[in-house]
Amino acid sequence: MSYRIGLVGKPSVGKSTFFNAATMNDVPEGAYPFTTIDPSVGEAYVRVECAAPEFDHACTPETGFCRDEVRFVPTKLVDVAGLIPGAHEGNGLGNQFLTDLNETDVLVHVVDFSGTTDAEGEPTEGHDPRDDIDFLETELDMWYLEILEKGIEKFSNRYAGKEAAIEVELAEQMSAFRTNKDEIKRLILRLDIGFDPIEWDPDDREALAREIRTETKPMVIAANKMDTPKARENYEAITSDPDYEHLTIVPASAHAEKALKRADEQGAVDYRPGDGDFEIQGELSADQEAGLSQIQEFVHEFEGTGVQRALETALFEELDAIAVFPGSANGEPEDGTFMRDCFVLPEGSTTEDFAYFLHSDIGEGLLHGIDCRSNRQVGSSHELEHRDVIEIVSTN
Ligand SMILES: Nc1nc2c(ncn2[C@@H]2O[C@H](COP(=O)(O)OP(=O)(O)OP(=O)(O)O)[C@@H](O)[C@H]2O)c(=O)[nH]1
Ligand SMILES: [Mg+2]
């Protein structure tokens, strides 16, 4: 199992550019709406400080790669088609794209902070990015609400006047959102609306749809096109607007990330993805040099291009996932390999979860784990932490 991060947003905000920058793919990008129709899935990476130097060995990665003591751990990134207002009613490319979102674990909402595209992705000026942030949330909420209403209707038809649990029916109806009855019960309690849906007014229903959406679709906002002056103005305004305080907003330039990765491949710069600096190498044309020094100012100011940071914030902060290295207790290489793997696991994973993650046989034969830093045994229900190095001892 590997995590899937979904890129969402209205057309022309830079989703495909962000996708290409992160995955070094080459899907079409264009200054016109609906450049993307079919979703693409690619491999992106999240950074984790490599644990190998603590054991005085060099790592030999098989999953992902390591660059100057930073591991780049693979994760799936999905570039979906642009959403426009009314998508839940089938507008634009409609419902299918909402459905694609259900196959992701966390979302990066790419927003055009430059204000140069309107609600449908057509060129304009002075568009307020706040409208786009609001629209996407509303669109998702309406989609959830529609399915929630279906669940309430079924429940009412089936159980009028009888004892039954609404959370069971809703969990079944909304299973595609990866929710369950316990979660729904908790959210109903949190909203304090009672367990009889007949008593719920439209506001209660909407509030519940929103709660379920925010629980099941954690989201980070990538404030894209920050390489333009207008985007900076909007960024200042929105990050100091109390109505938007609850959001996680990462300033980003997909253009800058793409340019730096290309330049690194060509040997024009030495750039480790995500870094807040890079070195120019060799002879460059005056144009190239001017372009790169602009990007350099940008990454100095924002401590990177924001592309890596948006993905890592989604996985490690919004989802609270952890990265774990399988290790060997004596801290020595085996068969000439060392710290081949690094895996991303859900928050709260235990030694046993990790063993089953590696293989069901390993899970079934689990005896205990060993924390390779301290050489201490850890029990099967021991909760793992980010960057733990663990050997699993199993009879299988
Ligand atoms: N200035 C600036 N422009 C960008 C940036 N990222 C993307 N763009 C431009 O924005 C336009 C749209 O980019 P796409 O990546 O095709 O946008 P999209 O969100 O995938 O659009 P659809 O597939 O139509 O939904 C292109 O002209 C890109 O060059 C950025 O970081 N800075
Ligand atoms: Mg696209």
Can you tell me about this structure?
The protein contains 12 helices and 14 strands. The protein has 396 residues and is α/β, with parallel strands linked by helices. The chain folds into 3 domains: 219 residues, P-loop containing nucleotide triphosphate hydrolases (Rossmann fold, 3-Layer(aba) Sandwich); 79 residues, Helicase, Ruva Protein, domain 3; 74 residues, Ubiquitin-like (UB roll) (Roll). Strands 1, 2, 3, 4, 5, 6 and 7 form a 7-stranded mixed β-sheet that branches. Strands 11-10-14-12-13 form a 5-stranded mixed β-sheet. It has a two-stranded antiparallel sheet with strand order 8-9. Helix 1 packs parallel to helix 8 and helix 3 crosses helix 6. The two termini are 21 Å apart. The model has no long low-confidence stretch (mean pLDDT 92). The structure holds guanosine-5'-triphosphate and magnesium ion. The site of guanosine-5'-triphosphate has 25 residues, from helix 1 and helix 8.
